[in-house]
Amino acid sequence: MPKFLDDAEMAKFMHQANIEPDPFRKLCVLLLARTGMRVGELTNLPQDPVVRIGDHHWLHVPVGKLRNDRYVPLHPELVELIAAWQAGNADRIASTGRLLTDKVSAVDRHRLTRMVRRVAKRAQIGHVHPHQLRHTLATQAINRGMRLEAVAALLGHRNLEMTLVYARIADRTVADEYNDVSAKVDHLYSTILPADAEGPHMQRLRQQHQRMLGNGWCQRPAQMDCRYETICEACTYFATDPDHVPVLIRQRDHAQQHHQPSRVRLYQQLLDNATTETKA
Is the entire prediction scored with pTM above 0.85? Predict the structure, then answer.
C-alpha cells in the first residue's frame, strides 16, 4: 500500500510549508503537496504552465511518465505564488525554459527531496519523501468524498485500478470537486496549535465530541461532517418503534447541542414517525 501522511501529520507539514521564508522552496513544496504531481513532472514544468479555463485556473502538466499530458486544477494560493515568482524571476526562468528556476539553476529531484525533508524535519514528523505527498493528496481527497474518476484524472492515472491507463477528465466537475475538497482540508490546516496549547477544559470539550461505535470511539472533529454517521437511520430498510422514543430524543438533543442540523432533522423525523405510530 502507498505510504501517506495522516491528517495530523499533513497538517503539521502544511503549517511549516506555509511559513517557509524562502519563496522558491515554498512554491516547490506547495506545488507538490497541492497538485499531487510526480517529481519528474514538477521539474519539467514549462515557464508559463498556467491556463485559465472558464472560472478556474489549471496547471498544464507536460508529457511525463505515462507519455501523456494533463491539466490539474490549481488552488488559488498557488495561482498567486506562481504569478509572483514569474514576475520576479522572468530572466532566470527564460534562460532555462522551466518555471522552477532560481539563482542556482532549474530545480531537480534531489533538491526537491531535500526541500521536502527540511519541511518535514521542522514539522517533527520524521522522514518524508516527495512521492508521499502525492499519495497523501489522493487519500485525503477520497476520504472526503472525491470521486475515484476525478482522483484518477487529477493524478494522471489511466484507470481506476491505478494501473497507469490514462483517463482524462478536465472539466468543471473535477474543478468543483477539487475546490470543495481543498476547502475542507484548508480548515484542517488553519487549526494548528502548539502541543501544550490544549488545557484540561479544551481537552474535555474535544472529548465530548467522541461518538461511541460498536467496538470503540469515533474521534472525528465536531466541525467535520461525516456522511456515514447516521447511514443506518437514513436507510429505507431502517425501522423504529415507540419503545425507542427516549433514545431518539437523546440523539436529537445531542445533535442540537453540537449544532448538527442535518442530524436534528433526521432524528426529529424518526420521532414524528414513532409518535404517530403510538397515537395510531
Answer: no
Asked if 135 and 2 count as a contact pair (C-beta separation under 8 A), the reply is yes
User: For the packed helices 23-35 and 130-143, what is the interaxial angle rounded to 10 degrees?
Assistant: 50
DSSP assignment of 56-114 = EEEEEE-S-TTS--EEEEPPHHHHHHHHHHHHH-HHHHHHHTBSSB-SS-B--HHHHHH
The residues facing 188 across adjacent strands are none
At 118-128, the pLDDT tens digits run 999 999 999 99
How far apart are alpha carbons 61 and 70 in whole angstroms? 5
∠ CA 114-116-117 to the nearest 5 degrees?
65
Domains of the chain plus CATH, in order, are: 7-189 (1.10.443.10), 214-279 (no CATH)
